[in-house]
Amino acid sequence: SYVLTQPPSVSVAPGKTARITCGGNNIGSKSVHWYQQKPGQAPVVVIYYDSDRPSGIPERFSGSNSGNTATLTISRVEAGDEADYYCQVWDSSSDHVVFGGGTKLTVL
Amino acid sequence: EVQLVESGGGLVQPGGSLRLSCAASRFTFSNFAMSWVRQAPGRGLEWVSAISGTGAYTYYADSVKGRFTISRDNSESTLYLQMNSLRAEDTAVYYCAKGGVSGSYYGNYFDYWGQGTLVTVSS
User: Fold this and answer.
1) Pairwise CB contact (< 8 Å): B46 & A99
2) Cβ A92–B106 below 8 Å, yes or no?
């Protein structure tokens, strides 16, 4: 089965740029979606189809995907961005949705 | 705005059964694939099952295949998850999630999620 690998944690100072990676075999050939989840809340999509941003999501959130790594980039990080972030793809070989293990973003 | 409201969670003994429901509103329910996603306490997201808009096609994670059954009633805009032979490892918050693009399950993302319903499997 397809596996997505995320770092368990990323720390960044306010105003700096956070990059959260999602590794997978030839993930660049798949569409990657990213979700933000704050404690006690349901996940919210922040990036879909690699780099599209839903309405209401700040332009500070962007995504890229190439080779074996997809990246969620959060510019000018704010305290309110502190959350867990999950990447997600659809695995065509199994017809399964796959989530990464999640990354806890800490704003220092 | 789209609304998804789950219900049916609770405490059940190992080997027991439970049926979850997700009432959907403010969108054309039959046009969208729907999924169940769960999250064990302190853990990450795990996709459980999905169903096409018509209900003709269903998909299951290996961990629940043969024990869980997903279904939908498009006339009532409601999604269901019948859970049998429950195990302690099925303890989680169960979310229903709506596909972001109409007509397709493949490659889709989830644009709306319910608030979740807690299932606890314990004796």
Assistant:
1) yes
2) yes
| pLDDT, position B103 | 81
Q: In degrees rounded to 5, what are phi and psi of residue A42?
A: -75, 155
Interchain contact, B45 vs A37, CB within 8 Å: yes
Please report the number of interchain residue pairs, chain A to chain B, with beta-carbon separation below 8 angstroms. Answer: 59
Residues 6 or more apart whose Cβ sits within 8 Å of residue A80:
none
Judging contacts by C-beta atoms under 8 Å, the chain B residues touching residue A38 are none
How far apart are alpha carbons A103 and A22 in whole angstroms?
9
Mean pLDDT of B7-21: 98
Cα distances from B71 to residues B77, B93, B102, in angstroms, run 11, 19, 18
Q: Is A5 on the interface with B (CB under 8 A)?
A: no
Q: What residues contact B39, with CB distance under 8 A and at least 6 apart?
A: B45, B46, B92, B93, B95, B116
pLDDT tens-place string over residues A84-108: 999 999 998 999 999 999 999 999 9
Residues of chain B contacting A88 with CB distance shorter than 8 Å = 45, 109-110
Residue B104: pLDDT above 90? no
- CA B34 to chain centroid, in Å, comes to 8
Q: Which residue in A61, A73, A90, A80 sits closest to A10, CA to CA?
A: A73
pLDDT 10s digits, A23-55: 999 999 999 999 999 999 999 999 999 999 999
